[in-house]
Amino acid sequence: MPGPGEFELIREYFSSRFQTGARPGSAANTVVLGIGDDCALLNPPAGKTLATSVDTLVADVHFPANADPYRIASRALRVNLSDLAAMNAEPLWFTLALTLPQSDPQWLAPFARGLAETADLYGVTLVGGDTTKGPLSITIQVTGACEKPLRRDGARAGDTVFVSNQLGAAAAALPIALGEMVGTAEQRQQMEAAYYFPEPQFAVARAIGNYASAALDISDGLLADLSHICEASKLGAELELEELPVAGLAQSMNAECNTESALETALTGGDDYQLCFTVPEQHLDTVDKLNLPITAIGRMSAEPGIRCRLHGNPWQPRGSGYRHF
Amino acid sequence: MPGPGEFELIREYFSSRFQTGARPGSAANTVVLGIGDDCALLNPPAGKTLATSVDTLVADVHFPANADPYRIASRALRVNLSDLAAMNAEPLWFTLALTLPQSDPQWLAPFARGLAETADLYGVTLVGGDTTKGPLSITIQVTGACEKPLRRDGARAGDTVFVSNQLGAAAAALPIALGEMVGTAEQRQQMEAAYYFPEPQFAVARAIGNYASAALDISDGLLADLSHICEASKLGAELELEELPVAGLAQSMNAECNTESALETALTGGDDYQLCFTVPEQHLDTVDKLNLPITAIGRMSAEPGIRCRLHGNPWQPRGSGYRHF
């Protein structure tokens, strides 16, 4: 039996949940016209710079095709919002380009619910989209407004490198997320949080906005992403690995191996969506007093490349981050 | 041999061709930061409304997977720009989410060239994107600025229905585009133009911006798309099919059948990206004097549904437009 046509499908699952003006927060009253015309019409907040980012999640590349659609939607939107957070932008709007093998209400209903609940949580409004037939993939573009954007290219030699929260949980979670292993109940819960409900670090970004010299979110692994700050700022970095905040899940999943395997996971594993940022010396005291969930892990240096030390001894990871091809 | 990694790939094929500020036109100086950070940073033109639209083209659904990548890029961007034109918005920025089975320079080089040349032609700037591994598909989101948006919901009963240029060429071209038939040299040339180089109707939209009551672009077939104006405006329409401007290709491809087959193609075939719009009676004389490539084909009416007449006799098409699922 064929599913509903594209227009009924969009109307039923998205338009009704994302009525213009129905979302809370300030984003809703910037939407002149939402889903359903050739374009959405939007009034950007006066005097602010727009920040926009697009990410595609492909089934069986970025998430298991048979994963719970509610969780897929949560992950897809959160991963995109993380880019706004990393730029210190406040979320306004997003669009959804959804490619589906078939129009299946059993899949669409929880997906739309996951999307709507995540959007509500972060005060971002769905303003348009496209639904096409093909192999499952999800492209979301988020747009936000910012006054003090945190770019990658502002670091200076001597700036301290920080990361938010812990690293390595998402990469450690992968074997459980993929069903390759079961894990303990606690590990499954940590996997769930790390992999499907990563938290865009808006609060940290807002707090450090006046003090950080550069920032990004860690999507491809700390070493790979820090190297983008290094390249954009034409610098290198020295990391003290004993300072690295390794997530409990990375420790417990690597318990049978050793501490260095957990370190490796925290350094090179992707998908954590924590912030990595740099702070000039004159702001270190102020940032310290903000009581943020952040850890200083090293310093920017004039010499290109990233050098890791563990208790003072040079330490070389085996991998350097996720490659998309 | 593995292709280049994602970052080298993006840098080589896109960043170098789409340097911030390197594009002509006014869009370039609204770009604070283009490709390469977590987000693009954009300064929207003061006092204008933004219009944004996203479309996905999936290989072997929306274009033949083995088609020339230059032509695929042209079609992908033009189809998206058509939504801006239909809203009477001037193009500013676009993003590209590209999913590729492998990182293949033989494919990427002509694709990037097609995208850059099309972008130049319409004065739109690539500001960001994502490259992922998976089944070939292209998602483009375009954003423009408008002062007098042309929505779907402004038509009134008695307004005259117009279409721009001719209809049916793209649908008639499909068997040639898919390689199912060869066609004459002239037909192949017309296929090329209709299918891979559709022209977003910016000039027509700009000219009618002050006079039209509703507008959209015809992507799914005239009947399907006009029904969106009808629904949004809570009206119906009466069409006089002898007025319908049927494209030469639709006529020549249906020559062995009959005129009614050509009419059917023009009424229900998708992918033409011509405008369909409505004009209130008091503006008809003014619009007539603009000497635009447009044709009056009927009127909006209070009675819901679309009724077609051919030389005064009721006429019922077999299909009603493209269904995506």
Compact description:
Chain A contains ten helices and 13 strands. By secondary structure, chain A is an alpha+beta fold.
Question: In words, what does this structure look like?
Answer:
Two copies of one chain form a homodimer. The mean pLDDT of chain A is 88. The relative contact order of chain A is 0.15. The two termini of chain A are 38 Å apart. The longest helix of chain A has 18 residues, at 69-86. Chain A has helices spanning 6-15, 69-86, 105-122, 169-177, 185-196, 202-208, 222-233, 248-253, 259-268, 284-289, and strands at residues 31-33, 40-42, 49-58, 90-100, 125-133, 137-146, 160-164, 214-217, 236-240, 275-279, 294-301, 305-310, 313-315. Chain A contains ten helices and 13 strands. In chain A, helix 2 packs parallel to helix 6 and helix 4 crosses helix 5. The first copy, chain A, has 325 residues and is an alpha+beta fold. In chain A, strand 4 (90-100), helix 3 (105-122) and strand 5 (125-133) form a beta-alpha-beta unit. Chain A is globular. A seven-stranded mixed β-sheet of chain A has the order 8-10-7-11-9-12-13, sandwiched between helices.
